Every structure is written in structure tokens, then in C-alpha cells.
Automatic annotation (TrEMBL):
Top-level taxonomic group: Bacteria
Pfam families: Transket_pyr
Transketolase-like pyrimidine-binding domain segment(s): 2-168
Annotated protein name in UniProt: Transketolase
InterPro entries (UniProt xref): PDH/Transketolase, THDP-binding, Transketo_C/PFOR_II, Transketolase-like_Pyr-bd
Species this protein is from: Streptomyces stramineus
């Protein structure tokens, strides 16, 4: 199976052939996947070199001319390093585009903290009007990328990861998918967290919602997952980025119902002995065994 990044390159290359409004902007990273596309469309596959602020500025400039830029590099460079340009060149200028990240929170532990961005979703969430997709499988990544490329002048962030679920689920570019039903609580699994969540809650009487679009937050699906007649609700959010990123959104969705929310994800404390991805996940308490202990302790 190809990776999400490989699927991004092949999908974006196909879209360049069919939509003259699209352009791909790169900052050295990912250029190999676009070699053929750059030869076919030298004016619409642009590599600015290792200049991430210029990467965003170029995308924003293209958007001002009426084009639809697909802007790509590691999340730590795309969002963290170039945040001021994202805020101004897309938000303040009122333009739209698609930011496509790789690396995520801990995809390359050996690369160190410079190549990790556990706070990307939370940071973008301080800005207005961004749709944010977190696919959990290459097929989902392709569907969401195609949706984002065709989304008029909207501002869209697509967060790719090396971690994937075993099978793709239907995605529409909005709304949570109900995967299983229960009565003791609701667990929202974001993107590549789904398989670990399902393994963790096996045998527990809980509902599981699958989120591949996290902004806008799907208030309606969360409320619908609460059993009819319930006077209280317990919700667990399992996100592959900063723990608690969506806690406020869940609280707002359930504002008129007494409830508790547990936000699980990447902690603020930096893990400095990185190891492998699996070791890093375990160190963060996001492996199935740790998730089960934390969920059952919360539900009592």
C-alpha cells in the first residue's frame, strides 16, 4: 500500500492535468514525487527551496490571482515556522488554498523535535474559517484532497501521516462517522487513531465516532451519539496531536447537558528519547493497552 504522501503526489499530479486553476508549491521536500508533473506543468509546479515563509507567501500570491494553490511540506515548517504568513497571506488577505502537511506529531522520531508539530491543529484553530482534515488511510487522504482541491476558495488544511488504519472508511469532507454504538460513553477517534481506539474499547459498552474532518467540529453527530434520554454524558477524544485540542469544541457541543470530557493525545512534555514510532506512541500513552486503561479509569 502506498503512503499518504505518495498518494498526495499522484493525486495532485492527476489534478494538475485536469484543472488549470491548480498549482503545487513545494519547499524542496516532496519534489521527487512531482518530477513528472513539473516537466508537464513547469509554470504550475513551483519549488521555492528551503524557504518556508516564501512557500506560504507564494501560495497566497497565487491565490490572489485566482488560482487554487496546493502548498506542501512538513507540518513543523508549514504551520509552526510559517504561521505569520498563514495568518496574513491567507487569513488577512481573504484568500483560499490547500495546505498539505506531512510529518505530523511524531512520524519521524529520529528527526527530533524540529520535525514534529503536535500543536498544528490547535495553532490553526486560532484562525478563522479553516477546514481541517485528518485522514487515517491513503484512500481517505485522496478523497479529502480531491474534495479540498475543488472547494472553491475555502481555506483547507490536510494533515497526512505515516500512521494508517488497516482499512479506509467512507469520508465526505465533513461530519463524524458512527462506527459502533454503546451506552456508557462516546469515544471520538481522529484519523489514524481509529484502529488503536477500536482495539482499546473492545468489549466495552461505548460508542465510537470516527473523525477525519475535525474542523468544523461535528456537534450534531456527537450529540446524536448520546443515548436518548441520557441526563449526563461522558466523552473521550483521542487525537494524534496536542491533547485537549478539541475539548472546548466538545464542551460547546454539549453545553446544555451535564457532561465530562477527557482529551487524550500528545502531551506538552517533550519526549527526548525518541526511539521508533511504536515506542513513541507507547510513551505518549496512545497504544491500545494504555488507551484502554485511561478510558476505563475515566468511565469508572
Amino acid at each position: 500500500m502506498d503512503t499518504m504522501r505518495e498518494r498526495f503526489a499522484s493525486t495532485a499530479s492527476q489534478l494538475l492535468d485536469s484543472d488549470p486553476r491548480l498549482a503545487v508549491v513545494l519547499a524542496e521536500i516532496g519534489t521527487d514525487g512531482f518530477a513528472a508533473a513539473q516537466e508537464a506543468h513547469p509554470d504550475r509546479v513551483i519549488n521555492v527551496g528551503i524557504r518556508e515563509q516564501l512557500l506560504i507567501g507564494t501560495g497566497g500570491g497565487l491565490a490572489l490571482t485566482g488560482m487554487r494553490p496546493l502548498v506542501h511540506t512538513f507540518a513543523s515548517f508549514l504551520v509552526d515556522r510559517a504561521f505569520e504568513q498563514v495568518k496574513l497571506d491567507f487569513g488577512h488577505q481573504g484568500t483560499g488554498g490547500v495546505l498539505v502537511s506531512a510529518g505530523g506529531s511524531y512520524d519521524w522520531p529520529a528527526g527530533g523535535y524540529t520535525h514534529m508539530s503536535p500543536g498544528d491543529i490547535a495553532l490553526l484553530d486560532t484562525l478563522d474559517g479553516w477546514t481541517m482534515h485528518v485522514p487515517g488511510h491513503p484512500d481517505e487522504a485522496e478523497a479529502l484532497l480531491r474534495h479540498a482541491a475543488a472547494a472553491g476558495d475555502d481555506k483547507v488544511y490536510v494533515r497526512l501521516s505515516v500512521q494508517t488504519n488497516a482499512a479506509a472508511r467512507p469520508v465526505t469532507g465533513g461530519g463524524f462517522l458512527a462506527v459502533r454504538e454503546g451506552r456508557r460513553g462516546v469515544v471520538v477517534a481522529v484519523g489514524p487513531m481509529l484502529d488503536s481506539v477500536l482495539a482499546a474499547v473492545e468489549g466495552l459498552d461505548v460508542s465510537v465516532l470516527y473523525a477525519t474532518t475535525v474542523r468544523p467540529f461535528d456537534d450534531a453527530s456527537l450529540r446524536a451519539a448520546i443515548p436518548a434520554g441520557a441526563t449526563t454524558a461522558d466523552v473521550v477524544l483521542v487525537e494524534p496531536y496536542l491533547a485537549g485540542t478539541s475539548t472546548a469544541a466538545a464542551n460547546d457541543a454539549l453545553a446544555d447537558l451535564p457532561h465530562r470530557v477527557l482529551g487524550l493525545g500528545v502531551g506538552r512534555r517533550e519526549l527526548r528519547r525518541y526511539g521508533s514510532v511504536d515506542e513513541y506512541v507507547a510513551g505518549l500513552g496512545l497504544d491500545p493497552r494504555s488507551l484502554r486503561e485511561r478510558v476505563t479509569a475515566f468511565l469508572g
